[in-house]
Amino acid sequence: VTTLGIIGGGQLGRMLALAAAPLGIECVAVEPAEKAPAAIAADVIRATYGDRGALEHLARRCDVVTVELEHVPVDALGWLAERVPVRPSPNVVAIAQDRLLEKQALRAAGIPTAAWAEALEAFPEGTVVKRRFGGYDGRGQVMVPPGGTVAAVLDGDCISEAVVPFERELSIVAARDLDGAVVTYPVVENRHADGILRATRAPAPRLDSRTQAQADGFARRLMSAWDYVGVIAVELFQLVDGSLLANEVAPRVHNSGHWTIEGTDTSQFEQHVRAVCSLPLGSAEPWGVAAMVNLIGAIPDAAAVLAVPGAHLHLYGKEPWPGRKVGHVTVVAAEETELDERLQCLKLC
Amino acid sequence: VTTLGIIGGGQLGRMLALAAAPLGIECVAVEPAEKAPAAIAADVIRATYGDRGALEHLARRCDVVTVELEHVPVDALGWLAERVPVRPSPNVVAIAQDRLLEKQALRAAGIPTAAWAEALEAFPEGTVVKRRFGGYDGRGQVMVPPGGTVAAVLDGDCISEAVVPFERELSIVAARDLDGAVVTYPVVENRHADGILRATRAPAPRLDSRTQAQADGFARRLMSAWDYVGVIAVELFQLVDGSLLANEVAPRVHNSGHWTIEGTDTSQFEQHVRAVCSLPLGSAEPWGVAAMVNLIGAIPDAAAVLAVPGAHLHLYGKEPWPGRKVGHVTVVAAEETELDERLQCLKLC
């Protein structure tokens, strides 16, 4: 029996563990929070992510360890990697948790981004000041309009980035196995509000092959440069001329890939488990079209959701409070018109 | 939070619990065996199925109780049903566990079967003597050729049945919710050896609408007569002229429905959980074609299985021993030729 360690026991860990179970892979998660969502299908060690005792336990018990979040102490991951394979590698997690290293890595891989600067610098089109460490779901960044003062809007080390007049936000989820084989899911369109992902359409409406190929290339170049193993997500801006800029990279399964559970033959969660456990990847082809809507701050009536044709409910076992992701709904359909009709029935977005 | 009790903690309970988790439904299973497969995603009370203490615990803790096997003490189920909803009802389980009551119920519902007799009777075309109680996977039955002696081939109460010169074995899985709404999956073809299901093709090759309609009618008539709630399976013989006879009924999710996990939008497991937990049913439409192969007595190399396009591995967390079902593999494809190619790569059947 293969045992997979997961740093983090939130909803991503939960869905990883649920995907691992049919493969006969047992999961052990490390999570400091009480009532870890992953506990439904994983043993949970209640400890901070860097707790040496918990990591020793993981090293002893697991065949391989992965992460469900990038905000993990890198020294702890490094210590673990000397004892048990850690996939993706601690180096990659270190890059993804530091916006400066991330931007430098994107530049090194020849992947276009918005203009940025290591120092606090005002861009003529407006500036986003971002903390180097710890930001997620829109936290840790401040928008400064053209002509504004970028100094001291945030504590800690920051970078500055030019505001991009993008047409829409897209993302791509891809996976790479130990042999270097890659599969990429279709590019999806994401809608955010207050910095939190609200809804994903998959594939992105009006997606053309050039856009898919460009996004594919970004994911492949990064994964190849990093000798990456597992699922990765690249958040993208699409400009008015159709071209793409990379925004952020997540070295893990991603909220914009949740639709793959019902929308494709192999979900991002199974794909990640396969990759890090030295198994071959599966098909990432979509069956039809899908939309994913996050449930934020409140749990809807399950019967009302499931009465919508093609609707699937995913609850994470979390108490709802304002702004908290407590689940998601995926709706699948044969084509866009049917999907729109179903989403109207759903009344969630 | 809804809590679902399950009598039985085997692989069916495991797959029910894995399907319940995303719906935010917690499962508690009663199972006497050590290392219950359901334990991956359910709390397991280690006790016999009729253990009064365990049932009291279920009654206190659960909103509804279901069964993953029909060989459950009916008096215990009846006791439970006075305290908490039991779906399907104990009456139906009592019928399904007794071949005589089952045959009588099929006759009462106007569903054709092979000729049978309550007494030990020799049929000119050959006779199958079957124990009334406790048979499964081919156990508890003996075939007597034409002219042979049917007396005393088995201990206990038995019925006798005429041997049917069938063309092939089929089955249908269907579900009915609390409001009486019904969905039916496509009729599938099953191949048995030594009385154990080896492989299922879904939909059954060369399935015509008349056959689907006849099988549909069988399932609908039984479920309506029984005011049934949950998933049901009806095993069928197809004769040379294409017509169907009902063989056996299982008041639960069924091995010949495992392909629905990847082959349809709503698996039989999710469908059963939805039905018994008062939620609406989902679509039972297949995406394409599928084949399910049981893993019996040995666990194959996971990497070899998953290298086959469209292949999905399901292990049950059971130690392999001769004749024991330890998992299954489902292969999906767009159409039959592609499926055949993939099955040849799989080299399992």
Could you provide a short overview of the structure?
Chain A has helices at 11-20, 52-61, 74-81, 90-96, 99-108, 209-225, 260-263, 268-276, 302-306, 336-346, and strands spanning 3-7, 26-30, 43-45, 64-67, 116-117, 127-131, 141-144, 158-162, 168-176, 182-184, 188-193, 196-202, 230-238, 244-250, 289-296, 311-315, 325-333.
CA-CA gap between termini of chain A? 42 Å
Shape of chain A: globular
By DSSP (H or I, 4+ residues per run), the number of helices of chain A equals: 10
What would you report as the Rg of chain A, rounded to the nearest angstrom? 20 Å
Helices and strands of chain A, in order, run as EHEEHEHHHEEEEEEEEHEEHHEHEEH
Biggest sheet overview of chain A: 9 strands, antiparallel
Mean pLDDT over all positions of chain A: 95
Poorly predicted sequence stretches spanning 5 or more consecutive residues of chain A: none
How would you classify the helix and strand content of chain A by structural class? Answer: alpha+beta
Oligomeric state:
homodimer
How many beta-strand runs of chain A?
17
The chain pair forming the largest interface, with residue counts per chain, is:
A-B, 34 and 33 residues
- Report strand % of chain A: 25-35%
Percent in helix of chain A:
25-40%
Structure description:
The structure is a homodimer of 349-residue chains. With 349 residues, chain A is of the alpha+beta class. Chain A contains ten helices and 17 strands. Chain A has helices spanning 11-20, 52-61, 74-81, 90-96, 99-108, 209-225, 260-263, 268-276, 302-306, 336-346; strands at residues 3-7, 26-30, 43-45, 64-67, 116-117, 127-131, 141-144, 158-162, 168-176, 182-184, 188-193, 196-202, 230-238, 244-250, 289-296, 311-315, 325-333. In chain A, strands 9, 10, 11, 12, 13, 14, 15, 16 and 17 form a nine-stranded antiparallel β-sheet that branches. A four-stranded parallel β-sheet of chain A has the order 3-2-1-4, with helices on both faces. A four-stranded antiparallel β-sheet of chain A has the order 5-8-6-7, covered by helices on one side. The longest helix of chain A is centred in the middle third of the chain and has 17 residues, at 209-225. The model of chain A has no long low-confidence stretch (mean pLDDT 95). Chains A and B meet through helix 9 and strand 16 of A and helix 9 and strand 16 of B.
